[in-house]
Amino acid sequence: MNLKQSQISQRPIRKEARLFCEVCLSIYYYWVTYNNIFEKISSLLQSERNISAWEFKNTPIGSTLSIIDRTLGNQVILEITKLHDPARMKNNENVCIDLFVSHVEWSDREMSKIQNLKEKLEENFNFIKPARNKILAHNDREAFNN
Question: What is the pTM of this model?
Answer without folding.
Answer: 0.73
